[in-house]
Amino acid sequence: MLNLVRRNFILRYKGSVLGVLWSLLLPLAHLLVLAYLFGKVVRLGIEDYPAFVFTALLPWNWFSSCINSAGSLFLSNRDLLRRPNFAPYTLIIIDALTNLLTFLISLPILFVLLISHGRGMTLSLPFFLLLVPIQGILIIGLGLMIATLNVFYRDIAHIMSVATMLLFYITPVFYGSQTVGKEYHFLFEWNPMAILIENYRAVLFQGTSPEWHSLLIAFIFSAIVCYFGYLIYRRQIHNVIDAI
What we know:
By secondary structure, this protein is mostly helical.
């Protein structure tokens, strides 16, 4: 599995002049666009806005990259799936770990941004290690559903691409949930990615401990999604192999 993670990460940037640097340049470019748009053009009045955005942008990019690539994982790895000793679900884990590696490589840039805005590392930093597995469980569960169902219904990948785009706007990545009217708070209270983003921001940007009640909701939701994702995968995997 680790060899496949390394292979996928290397192949992603093979043949490009800048190579692995693209894993840093792409989130930085996204950050610059958001920071200029909502820091200069449409001012949201959020203090230390570049660090505020980047704290949420990195976990969001991990999530969206995995969801958008999940649909093609089984279809583009037919040879691996046909091997009798290969467990197809490992492709979902490998993809999640590959994109997590991009997330982790970008962390030093985030820490530099935080320090430059006077927000140094605090005792809350170890809670980061709690948030990553919860998000990983959610990603793997959704990935199992998408990869399995997309073999039979190719529209699933396109639907998830649109859904991810829409979810971006109801997840507080470039704004804070406290700025939204109370009648719309339900969009964030039952959105696991919104909960995780707010807790990443609390731990890294604000230097406080996570909000335990909401984090428990995110964990339970992620575990349920992962369970049903594996259930769908287990029931359909033989049909998946036959179909491809």
